[in-house]
Amino acid sequence: MTNKEKELLLLLENEGRMPLDKLAKMIDLSENEISTMIQEFEKKKVILGYSAIIDWSKVNTTETVTAMIDVKVTPKRGVGFDEVAERIYRFKEVKALYLMSGTYDLSVVIEGKSMNEIAKFVSDKLSTLDSVLSTTTHFQLKKYKHDGVVFEDRDEDHRIVVSP
Amino acid sequence: MTSLQSFPKNKLSDAVQRIKPSGIRRFFDLASTMDNVISLGVGEPDFITPWNVREASIASLERGLTSYTANAGIIELRTAIAEYLHTSFHTTYNPESEVVVTVGASEGIDLALRATINPGDEVLIVEPSFVSYAPLVSLIGGIPISVPTSIENDFKVSADEIESRITNKTKGILISFPNNPTGSVMDAQDLKACVDVFLKHDLLVFSDEIYAELTYDGKHVSLPSIEGMWERTILISGFSKAFAMTGWRLGYLAAPKHYAEAMLKIHQYAMMCASTMAQYAALEAITKGQEEMKEMIVSYRQRRNYFVKSLREIGLQCHMPGGAFYAFPSITSTGFTSEEFAEKLLMEERVAVVPGSVFGAGGEGHIRCSYATSMTQLEESILRIDRFLNSHTKK
User: Fold this and answer.
1) How many CB pairs under 8 A join A and B?
2) Right CATH for B51-288 from 3.40.640.10, 2.40.10.10, 3.40.50.150, 3.90.550.10
């Protein structure tokens, strides 16, 4: 990967909606070159999609609850953790899934409409899987920072307007 | 009570009466009374000091490190500065005797001049330049002689321009690349002819390299790293620009021992030492903050590319600045002086820029725009400047 390709990815990661002409100027390439690069990245699944970061707590909509569940599992011969992981991430409630080192094996991030709904998912779907030994559920209370974005940003521009 | 009228003017020193207040001040006063102003007038980074640096300073307070330090600064910091100058810019200084930590590079400039200039000595100043150089020379009775640069040369200084101003009173030259306000840089090739002149005329060189890290196309060449220059150079730099630490007021001087000792003598009487908590912050910045600094530099470069290209698209002639965070476009096509342009732009479109004339010779006909501000602000400022240009060319 070239430096300019890396720059492009970092800029898009930070602002997926940045228009081509702006990207082209900033990275010092032509719009065509940028557009080809992006297409390449999309084709190779380096760029998997473009999404917005939304503070749902600010809009009057049905509230969602997020929980992080520590799951202990028994890995299976030949497929290790991958098979049980796949069984878990296929549920649409599962927003993220990571294999972890340490005291548990899988970290599952679940979103639901209520604590009840999540509890039901854990007891009905997750705990009943053959490989799952135990689960510990932690509910998120407040989002301070997500994907590098601070939700209540207080870092305003305090600089004086004109200085030497 | 003394009224302003009866205050005896003759109690002020001749030196202070000789110098004029900074031309930037008027624009600050004007702009700060207005709302919805996009400021391209700020001479400092838009990043907040990285958290690990702020945290290190807080930790130093918690540990109770609140007393004076050695006059030259804590030895850990001086050592780190010397190592940094060696790795990044190939210059070698002994941290024990050749590095002095100062209250901003501004104090460094003052100390360097006061330690070396006698009344009547002439000091060449490469202009346009930072606004404090000429007044500081005047304050100590020196005579500032301006050496102009221009857009035709991408604001690089030519050896001929320097040499033609040398007299038997010339003591030294004050030079700063990457340059505020032009953003111009000088590479090894550009510097060579100038260095020959410095050596031929035995000039002392005050090299303000505060923007050294902010070099975008290639690597900064530090003057004392050039053969024959170390002995005759006082290097002035600091943490403000590269590490986004302007408010901490922390700079440093690096120079051969006899110069460093002389400057330290003034520093110990005038300042005692730089702020202790700022020194601990700087130590963290210089030892562990270079990764984050590099990210900031990438961001400045992207914004420079965007802003300069956009200025050209809307019809302003602008050289591609190789460093610092300023674009210095020519506005002569509008028929306005730089001051008229800046004032009208502020009043009509609420964009604050600094007229080039305040930066000395060669600055007239240009405006300084700092692109150290958010992309959103830069985009909006381009729209406003474009509208401004259109409304004034129709007439």
Assistant:
1) 58
2) 3.40.640.10
